[in-house]
Write a structure and sequence with these properties.
heterodimer, A: 242 residues, two-stranded antiparallel sheet, elongated, B: 464 residues, mainly alpha, two-stranded antiparallel ribbon, 16 helices, 64% helix, 5% strand, binds iron/sulfur cluster
């Protein structure tokens, strides 16, 4: 008995009588089509945008886009946003890191200076801010390098939205009013926790920074109230290597 | 489990309701026409009602159904973006798309390519469209009943040469196709036209042979009328019927039971003549686009709608010849006795509705076939026509003829047909051994073998 020979024959043979007769196999095919037809015609479609989790009779995998939006996976690089501080101003310090690294050269920044007599706590310790911050989303290649480059966590792509369609090219050029949105972000390492004013140098307060990060010193939040840091769990700390 | 009750209830009430209303209107109008005009005037009503209303409306609905039903078979939703201005929140199952399609086709420029043969170019769509329509004239869409004292036939014309008319007119449709292909002055269109004519020639033989068995069995080529194929199928095989209370039951002499092979032959051949997948090489969207590649606007629309009219007409013809016409498989006598002499039109309307429901079912079958089977290659089409269908057709004619000669009551024919159907069903329902063999191979050669023979089989062939 020659097994290898058998195998070869079966692969090349037009198999058995059902397949050579056409009709039974054609009827099988029709049965599959009809089963799907009936299930999809009479079963209510589950509009769950997570298609694999859909239940019920209907097998339809369509997501009706403008009415139903698919959920993007975690880490999806969506439309940019400029992260606001608690007081609503951008965290951005106009350092040009993102504009420099951007391979598409689609970020344009003009820097301005906070005046010395600015009374907001946050602004008092920061020197620069963007007066113009423009991203041409049409030229952006969505590489995410700007987010990685930013030393101040001031630009993020965590909107979980892709760039919406526009009627003109100019519509894709996003400026500060359109970019500055989303929840504000605060880090223990933010300069206004480390020093009272821009006159005090940063390194003097390095220890304080670390102690806040480890939960030894309570966080000072704008608005005056203090928050006790829970030390039982590890605290999410963003440390910037300088 | 959530069901779309609106669709379920809608399709169970609206479709039969509309059909019933249409058929009842036909019988009553026919009766009135006979009463007030002249005897036989109901045929004029039937021309308008059956050809222009029923066939045309169903064909138009099929243009949508083709897209919507194929979507359902492929787990999609299908067209649902066209909305009516005052019903913007409801897609209405895509029905507004029919309106937008018609608007688009009517308002587009009818472009005639340079160097095209203008007369033939303009003639071709009409030649493709008209014969298909004319085919339905001989298909009886309901029983002959007495309305207002006149016998009303639900058929546009009832010539005694019925099936011969069918063959004659059906062959005419290809003129439109090949003329369109030739007159467009386009190589792809010409290829499509040539393919269409060669396909028609290959399948014309099988088309005729498929019906010969039925002609022998019923000794007629007429479709309508009391001696026509359609009405003969309402009778039971002699001796094979009984009464269950008031309801008559038995084995009806439906063409499908007497001539399953003939049905398959005729269906395959007629399907090839409608030029729809899997026999759509004349169109072949993905390779040559086809004989209508140069047509635009409503001229293209005519080709398009002709294809769907063909689907409806083929369903009607198949039902009249093989699926008992308008009749139910049993209980026809009981149904007739339910209605008094003045209410016979109700009996007719119910059976007329049954006829159109069968048409819708067969249309579904044809659409399902089109969306299930891949296109045959050109040589496969010729092989199927000449080497498979033709011999089967010849054998079927001889076997059926012999059986009818031996037993003129058609019972032997019915038994032979029943056996053919049973064999087909058995073959379809038993699992293909090729598949189980393949599974076994995976088991034997796979890394884990539950049967403990893995080591044995893993040895090279020479070690056995
Ligand atoms: S994602 Fe990449 S291309 Fe887009 S702005 Fe950022 S750095 Fe530039
Ligand atoms: S977004 Fe970040 S990297 Fe870009 S200029 Fe502002 S602070 Fe610098």
């Amino acid at each position: 008995m020659d097994h290898a020979h058998d195998h070869h024959d079966e692969a090349s043979k037009p198999t058995d009588v059902r397949e050579r007769l056409f009709l039974p196999e054609l009827l099988h095919g029709l049965a599959i089509s009809t089963r799907k037809f009936l299930r999809n015609l009479f079963g209510e479609r589950d509009p769950n945008p997570q298609v694999v989790d859909r239940t019920g009779l209907s097998l339809v995998t369509t997501v009706q886009y403008p009415d139903e939006k698919p959920i993007y996976p975690p880490g999806y690089r969506g439309l940019h946003r400029l992260v606001p501080r608690e007081d609503g101003k951008p965290r951005c310090v106009a350092c040009y890191m993102c504009a420099t690294i951007c391979p598409a050269q689609c970020i344009y920044i003009e820097a301005g200076e906070y005046s010395d007599d600015d009374h907001a706590t946050e602004s008092r310790v920061i020197e620069k801010y963007p007066t113009q911050f423009v991203i041409d989303e049409l030229r952006c290649v969505v590489c995410g390098l700007c987010v990685d480059a930013c030393p101040k966590d001031a630009i993020r792509m965590d909107t979980y939205k892709h760039t919406p369609a526009e009627y003109t090219r100019q519509g894709f050029v996003y400026d500060i009013p359109r970019l500055l949105r989303g929840p504000p972000v605060t880090h223990p390492s933010d300069p206004w926790y480390k020093r009272g004013s821009s006159e005090e140098p940063d390194h003097v307060h390095k220890e304080a920074h670390t102690r806040i990060g480890e939960g030894l010193v309570p966080l000072k939040l704008p608005g005056g109230h203090r928050v006790e840091v829970d030390t039982s769990n590890p605290v999410a700390v963003t440390k910037f290597i300088k | 489990m959530r069901l779309r009750w609106n669709v379920i209830i809608g399709s169970l009430t609206i479709i039969p309701g509309l059909l019933f209303g249409g058929v009842a209107t036909g019988y009553l109008l026919g009766g009135l026409a006979d009463k007030h005009l002249f005897v036989g005037a109901h045929h004029l009503v039937n021309v308008v009602l059956l050809l222009l209303v029923f066939v045309m409306v169903i064909a138009t609905a099929l243009t949508l159904a083709e897209r919507k039903w194929s979507a359902m078979m492929q787990n999609r939703i299908g067209p649902n973006r066209a909305r009516l201005p005052f019903l913007e929140n409801s897609a209405l199952s895509g029905v507004p798309h029919v309106i937008t399609d018609v608007l688009k086709l009517l308002t587009k420029e009818a472009f005639i390519p340079k160097d095209a043969s203008k007369l033939l170019f303009n003639l071709a769509p009409m030649l493709a469209f008209a014969p298909v329509f004319a085919l339905f004239a001989i298909v009886p869409a309901g029983p002959t009943v007495n309305v207002f004292g006149f016998d009303i036939e639900m058929v546009a014309a009832n010539p005694d040469f019925g099936l011969l008319y069918l063959f004659g007119i059906a062959s005419l449709a290809v003129y439109g196709t090949s003329l369109a292909g030739w007159s467009s002055n386009n190589k792809f269109a010409l290829l499509g036209g040539v393919r269409a004519s060669s396909q028609m020639i290959s399948y014309e033989v099988a088309l005729g042979l498929g019906l010969v068995g039925m002609m022998i069995a019923f000794s007629t080529v007429q479709l309508g009328g009391p001696a026509g194929m359609s009405d003969l199928q309402s009778h039971y095989l002699p001796g094979w019927s009984t009464y269950l209370g008031p309801i008559d039951v038995g084995v009806p002499q439906w063409g499908f039971l007497l001539q399953p092979a003939g049905f398959i032959l005729f269906f395959a051949a007629a399907f090839a003549e409608t030029k729809r997948a899997p026999f759509d090489v004349p169109e072949g969207e993905s390779e040559i686009i086809g004989y209508f590649v140069e047509y635009s606007g409503m001229q293209f629309g005519l080709f398009m709608i002709a294809e769907f009219v063909e689907v409806v007409v083929l369903s009607g013809v198949l039902i009249a010849i093989f699926f008992g016409g308008p009749y139910l498989p049993f209980g026809n006598l009981w149904l007739k006795s339910l209605f008094g002499p003045d209410w016979q039109w109700l009996y007719g309307s119910i059976l007329g509705t049954v006829f159109w429901l069968k048409v819708v079912l067969l249309c579904y079958l044809q659409l399902a076939i089109r969306w299930t089977f891949p296109r045959f290659r050109y040589d496969q089409i010729q092989t199927l026509g000449w080497k498979i269908l033709l011999p089967i057709g010849l054998a079927n004619v001889f076997i059926s003829g012999a059986l009818i000669l031996w037993d003129p009551s058609l019972k032997a024919l019915a038994i032979a047909g029943g056996i053919e159907i049973l064999v087909l069903v058995a073959l379809t329902l038993t699992p293909t051994p090729a598949k189980s063999r393949a599974d076994a191979h995976i088991g034997h050669h796979g890394p884990v073998d539950e049967h403990g023979h893995g080591a044995d089989h893993a040895l090279p062939a020479g070690h056995h």
